[in-house]
């Protein structure tokens, strides 16, 4: 427009800047602002605040602070909206110290903070668990006659619940109601989640019921929270009751609800129901995510339903989802539990061929299974191969190997592994300690273990 000789007013420029920022073209908005200045225009506070907001949304708070200084130098004094926007951006970008500096600067200029300013800072303090600072800032806010709103209270309730301070959160909800500030669906969901995280399902249900009694319709997140809570508490009948209630209330269950129910049913051994829910979820057009497959695989494998688990594993692959190390490890463990060591070995070897960096868990499963089958040489070779493969052995690795040798009365290799175990700072678990104590009562092994203990002490002195 400027090149064509047109001279729009500041309102037009502000509209253009706002449009560019809405589209995420913040860099173009900044260039337009500079072009306006070069043409002799004096951008107003709306133009500057719009760009500051855009910069904060893309996380470029450094440039935003620089622009704040520039606008001051150009004679456009920042107001409460400008400062609050930047303070909120800094808090979200985890630059809390910088946010408090601006907070002090703003008050030093005689600009009183508003509810947005305080809420942003409180949120940042909650995220960093600075509860004393939260209390101080909240009290300061009230003393300054800046009334907290439902968003302020909801942030505090959510943060306290996540920290396990559910009674403090309940206290804030009661204070809200006393001040005639009605909790919204977010407040109730946060409080309900807090009780669920503590396993207090009676209290969680009271919150759920009080929400509906006050005319607030539970949303999908409300049902996610309470159904998951019941599933974690293994109260599956109540969970299913609420599940059936969702459709009656016009809410379509999502992958999260189905995954919670599948997990709960698997934990209580109701695998047929878990599989039925999985099939129902797929029939509804919902695409299971990796965690859904993990939950069902784990439940089936732990109960010895390896055929069904392999079926789910293949369904996962046919749906274009590449099983990760966690899924494969679950399956390897399940195969070993039902004695299908050959298939487990093939899957384990396939993981190493793919170049995946394995952690100690799959190695430990294989070592334990090989020892159980009496294949001590192969287990021993795999134990030492861990280090060569760049996998750090842990306490379970040593304990599994030692138990295998003790079961087979292999004193020489038991001694070698125990010495290495002590050298690396690991100790015997309960079952291995029981085995060693039992062997110490046998005359034929007393001298052997006395020598072993002496050697262990020598290692510890080194």
Explain this structure.
The structure is a single chain. The protein has helices at residues 10-22, 26-38, 45-57, 61-73, 80-92, 96-108, 115-127, 131-143, 150-162, 166-178, 185-197, 201-213, 220-232, 236-248, 255-267, 271-283, 290-302, 306-318, 325-337, 341-353, 360-372, 376-388, 395-407, 411-423, 430-440, 443-461. With 462 residues, it is mostly helical. Helix 4 packs antiparallel against helix 5 and helix 12 runs antiparallel to helix 13. The longest helix is centred in the C-terminal third of the chain and has 19 residues, at 443-461. It is elongated and about 90 Å long. The model is unreliable at 451-462 (pLDDT under 50).
Task: Describe the secondary structure blueprint for this structure.
Blueprint: H1 10-22, H2 26-38, H3 45-57, H4 61-73, H5 80-92, H6 96-108, H7 115-127, H8 131-143, H9 150-162, H10 166-178, H11 185-197, H12 201-213, H13 220-232, H14 236-248, H15 255-267, H16 271-283, H17 290-302, H18 306-318, H19 325-337, H20 341-353, H21 360-372, H22 376-388, H23 395-407, H24 411-423, H25 430-440, H26 443-461
Features:
26 helices, 462 residues, mainly alpha
């Amino acid at each position: 427009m400027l090149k064509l000789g047109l001279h729009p007013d500041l309102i037009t420029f502000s509209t253009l800047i706002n449009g560019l920022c809405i589209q995420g073209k913040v860099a173009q908005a900044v260039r337009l602002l500079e072009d306006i200045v070069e043409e002799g225009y004096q951008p107003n506070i709306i133009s500057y605040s719009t760009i500051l907001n855009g910069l904060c949304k893309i996380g470029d708070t450094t440039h935003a602070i620089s622009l704040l200084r520039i606008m001051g130098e150009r004679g456009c004094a920042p107001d409460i909206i400008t400062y609050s926007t930047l303070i909120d951006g800094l808090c979200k970008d985890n630059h809390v110290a910088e946010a408090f500096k601006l907070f002090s600067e703003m008050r030093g200029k005689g600009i009183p903070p508003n509810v947005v300013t305080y809420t942003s800072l409180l949120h940042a303090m909650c995220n960093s668990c600075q509860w004393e600072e939260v209390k101080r800032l909240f009290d300061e806010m009230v003393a300054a006659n800046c009334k907290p709103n439902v968003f302020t209270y909801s942030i505090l309730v959510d943060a306290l619940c996540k920290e396990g301070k559910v009674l403090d959160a309940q206290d804030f909800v009661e204070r809200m109601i006393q001040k005639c500030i009605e909790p919204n669906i977010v407040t109730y969901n946060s409080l309900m989640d807090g009780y669920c995280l503590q396993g207090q399902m009676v209290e969680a249900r009271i919150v759920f019921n009080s929400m509906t009694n006050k005319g607030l319709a539970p949303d999908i997140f409300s049902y996610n929270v309470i159904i998951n809570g019941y599933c974690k508490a293994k109260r599956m009948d109540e969970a299913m009751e609420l599940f059936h209630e969702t459709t009656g209330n016009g809410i379509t269950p999502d992958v999260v609800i189905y995954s919670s129910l599948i997990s709960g049913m698997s934990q209580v051994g109701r695998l047929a129901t878990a599989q039925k829910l999985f099939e129902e979820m797929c029939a509804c057009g919902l695409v299971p995510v990796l965690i859904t497959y993990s939950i069902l695989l784990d439940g089936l494998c732990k109960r010895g339903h390896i055929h069904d688990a392999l079926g789910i594993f293949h369904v996962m692959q046919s749906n274009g989802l590449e099983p990760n190390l966690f899924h494969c490890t679950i399956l390897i463990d399940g195969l070993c539990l039902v004695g299908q060591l050959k298939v487990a070995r093939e899957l384990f070897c396939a993981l190493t061929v793919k170049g995946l960096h394995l952690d100690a868990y799959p190695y430990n499963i294989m070592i334990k299974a090989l020892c159980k089958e009496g294949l001590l040489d192969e287990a021993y070779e795999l134990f030492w191969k861990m280090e060569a493969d760049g996998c750090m052995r842990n306490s379970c690795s040593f304990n599994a190997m030692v138990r295998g040798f003790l079961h087979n009365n292999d004193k020489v290799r038991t001694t070698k592994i125990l010495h290495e175990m002590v050298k690396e700072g690991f100790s015997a678990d309960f079952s291995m300690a029981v085995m060693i104590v039992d062997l110490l009562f046998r005359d034929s092994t007393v001298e052997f273990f006395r020598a072993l203990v002496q050697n262990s002490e020598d290692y510890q002195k080194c």
